[in-house]
C-alpha cells in the first residue's frame, strides 16, 4: 500500500496535465503527475507553433520545457510510469502503474490522444520499417527518396510541406477530393512541384517485406494503383487514449471522456482536461484552459 496520499494526481504531462499541475500547486495541494512517455505530449513533434499567444514560432520542445520547469519549480512531483488501472474507493482513487501504486484524493485525466492507424494490413508490423506517424521525427531518413502521406487534414498538409523540402517526390493520398486542411495551407502544398495529389482513393496494402517498398491505393470502382515509395507517413487524425478509464467514467462512442466545460466526469473526484475530453475545439490554448479549470474543480472538490 502506498504511504503517501496526494491531494491531486494528474495522468498525462501534456499541456493540459502540466497546466493542471501548475494550478494545483498554486492552490498548495500536494500534486503528482504520472506520464508514460515524455512531458509535452503531442506538441513535441511540432517545430513551429503559430498560435500560442505571446510566443509565435516557439518550438513544441521549447514550450514544453518552459512549462515543465514551471511545474517542477512549483513543487509538483513527476513520475515517468505508465498507468495500468484506476480504482475508485470513494474518498481516494488508487492508481496502479508499471512502477507501483499511487493514491490520490482526486484525479485529473489529461491523457490526450494517440495516432489513428490507417487500418491497412501489416501497418503495425511495418511501423519503423518505413511506416511512420511523425514526419518531423522521421522525415530526414527520406532525403532524396519517394514518400507518400495519407490524410487530408492540417497534419497531412504540414507534413507535405516539410517532406517536400526533404524527399524527391511526395504523394499526398486522400480518400476525398476536398480537404479538412486550411485552404491557405492547401495552396502552399499545391505550389510545391514535387507533390502529387492522389485523391478519392483508400490505402489497401503495404508493399515490401522487411521494409516499405510501396503503397497500393484503391479507387471506388476497385481500380488499384501502386505507389512506389520508401516511406509511408500516416496522418489520419488521432484517437483519445482513454481505454484504461472505461470502467471508471463515462466515455462517448468515440472514446472521449464525457464532460462539459467544468471538466467534471461521471465519477466524483475525477476530472478531465485537454484533447481527451468531449469538446469542439482541440487546441493548445483550450488544453491549457481545461487544465486550469480541472485543477480548480479538483481544489473545490477537496474543500
Ligand atoms: P483531422 O483534421 O481529423 O484529419 C484527418 C484526415 O485523415 C481527414 O482528412 C480524414 O479524412 C482522414 N482519415 C481519417 N481516417 C482515415 C482512414 N482510416 N483512412 C484514410 N484517411 C482517413 O486530423 P489532423 O490533420 O491530425 O488534425 C487534428 C487537429 O489538429 C485538427 O483540428 C487540426 O486543425 C489540428 N492541427 C493544427 C495544426 C496547426 O494549426 N499548426 C497542425 C496540425 C493539426 P476525411 O476528411 O474524409 O474525414
CATH H-tier superfamily of the largest domain: FAD/NAD(P)-binding domain
The ordered H/E elements are EHEHEEEEEEHEHEHEEEEEEEH
Q: What do the pLDDT scores average to? A: 96
- Write down the Rg: 21 Å
- What is CATH's topology name of the largest domain? FAD/NAD(P)-binding domain
Q: What's the CATH class label of the largest domain?
A: Alpha Beta
| Helix/sheet category | alpha/beta
Tell me the number of strands: 17
The best one-word shape is elongated
List segments where confidence is low: pLDDT < 50 over at least 5 consecutive residues: none
Number of helices: 6
Percentage of helical residues? 10-25%
Distance between the termini: 25 Å
Summarize the model shown:
With about 300 residues, the chain is of the alpha/beta class. The chain folds into two domains: about 5-115 and about 240-300, FAD/NAD(P)-binding domain, CATH 3.50.50.60; about 115-235, FAD/NAD(P)-binding domain, CATH 3.50.50.
Amino acid at each position: 500500500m502506498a504511504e503517501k496520499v496526494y491531494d491531486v494526481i494528474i495522468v498525462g504531462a501534456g499541456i493540459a496535465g502540466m497546466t493542471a499541475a501548475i494550478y494545483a500547486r498554486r492552490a498548495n495541494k500536494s500534486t503528482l503527475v504520472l506520464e508514460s512517455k515524455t512531458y509535452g505530449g503531442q506538441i513535441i513533434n511540432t517545430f513551429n507553433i503559430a498560435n500560442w499567444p505571446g510566443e509565435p514560432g516557439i518550438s513544441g520542445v521549447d514550450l514544453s520545457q518552459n512549462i515543465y520547469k514551471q511545474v517542477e519549480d512549483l513543487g509538483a512531483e513527476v513520475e515517468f510510469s505508465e498507468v495500468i488501472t484506476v480504482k475508485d474507493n470513494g474518498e481516494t482513487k488508487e492508481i496502479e502503474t508499471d512502477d507501483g501504486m499511487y493514491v490520490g484524493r482526486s484525479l485529473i485525466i489529461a491523457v490526450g490522444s494517440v495516432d489513428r492507424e490507417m487500418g491497412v494490413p501489416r501497418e503495425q508490423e511495418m511501423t519503423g520499417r518505413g511506416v511512420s506517424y511523425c514526419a518531423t521525427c522521421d522525415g530526414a531518413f527520406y532525403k532524396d527518396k519517394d514518400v507518400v502521406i495519407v490524410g487530408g487534414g492540417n497534419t497531412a498538409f504540414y507534413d507535405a510541406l516539410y517532406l517536400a523540402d526533404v524527399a524527391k517526390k511526395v504523394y499526398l493520398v486522400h480518400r476525398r477530393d476536398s480537404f479538412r486542411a486550411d485552404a491557405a495551407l492547401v495552396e502552399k502544398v499545391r505550389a510545391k512541384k514535387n507533390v502529387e495529389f492522389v485523391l478519392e482513393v483508400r490505402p489497401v496494402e503495404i508493399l515490401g517485406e522487411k521494409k516499405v517498398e510501396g503503397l497500393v491505393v484503391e479507387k471506388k470502382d476497385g481500380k488499384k494503383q501502386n505507389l512506389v515509395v520508401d516511406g509511408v507517413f500516416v496522418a489520419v487524425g488521432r484517437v483519445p487514449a482513454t481505454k484504461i478509464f472505461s470502467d471508471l467514467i463515462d466515455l462517448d462512442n468515440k472514446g472521449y471522456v464525457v464532460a462539459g466545460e467544468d471538466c467534471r466526469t461521471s465519477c466524483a473526484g475525477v476530472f478531465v482536461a485537454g484533447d481527451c475530453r468531449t469538446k469542439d475545439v482541440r487546441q493548445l490554448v483550450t488544453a491549457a484552459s481545461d487544465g486550469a479549470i480541472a485543477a480548480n474543480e479538483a481544489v473545490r472538490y477537496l474543500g
